[in-house]
Amino acid sequence: MFCLNIAGGMGLGGNECYPDVFQPFGGFADDVPVVDGYITLPDVPGIGFELKSNLYEVMRGVC
């Protein structure tokens, strides 16, 4: 979720997310666990879709 990366990058502490809406664009990176309602951003470069296999396939088809 791009908004989650913005909140993390700006040090805002969090934002409201709807991970099951707007698939494949919504949601968190693959294999990111939700623990007590919180997630930790993966430590990888990019804007947020690189670790989402379904979205990555859609974006690869655009190029």
Please outline the helices and strands.
Blueprint: H1 2-9, H2 53-62
Task: Please explain how this structure is put together.
This protein has helices at residues 2-9, 53-62. It has two helices and no strands. 8% of the residues are buried. It has 63 residues and is mainly α. The longest helix has 10 residues, at 53-62. The mean pLDDT is 84.
Gist?
The protein is an all-alpha fold. The chain has 2 helices and no strands. The two termini are 20 Å apart.
- Ranges with pLDDT <50 over ≥5 residues? none
Number of helices: 2
How many runs of DSSP E, i.e. beta strands?
A: 0
- For the termini, the CA-CA separation is 20 Å
Looking at this protein, list some descriptive labels.
63 residues; mainly alpha; 0% strand; globular
